[in-house]
Specification:
The protein has one domain. It has three helices and five strands; from the N terminus they run αβββββαα. A hairpin with a 3-residue loop joins strand 1 and strand 2. It has a three-stranded antiparallel sheet, with helices on one face. A two-stranded antiparallel sheet has the order 4-5. The chain is of the alpha+beta class. Helix 2 crosses helix 3.
Length: 88
């Protein structure tokens, strides 16, 4: 949970006992449960458990997108960065 606390401080997020609270524009806020992983269900037979840190960063980076799309883009960017760094 230390990583989550670092993200809360870095981005100036709010929190309560059970949620990380992310402002997403205007008076809107996104409440994300404080759990190690958040499960995103894509269909009855396909789901992915994402670390909470990735969920927070994807929501901050792409607040206008549905969470599943934001995570897809965010994880794709991280994979591209990792691939680029491993080539150098």
């Amino acid at each position: 949970m230390e990583e989550i606390n670092e993200l809360i401080q870095r981005y100036g997020l709010e929190e309560d006992g059970e949620h990380v609270i992310i402002p997403i524009g205007g008076n809107k806020r996104c409440f994300i449960l404080k759990r190690r992983y958040i499960r995103v269900v894509y269909s009855e037979t396909h789901y992915v458990d994402y670390p909470l840190t990735e969920v927070i960063e994807a929501t901050i980076k792409y607040p206008e997108l549905p969470l599943s799309e934001a995570l897809y883009l965010f994880c794709g960017e991280r994979k591209a960065e990792t691939d680029e760094n491993s080539e150098n």
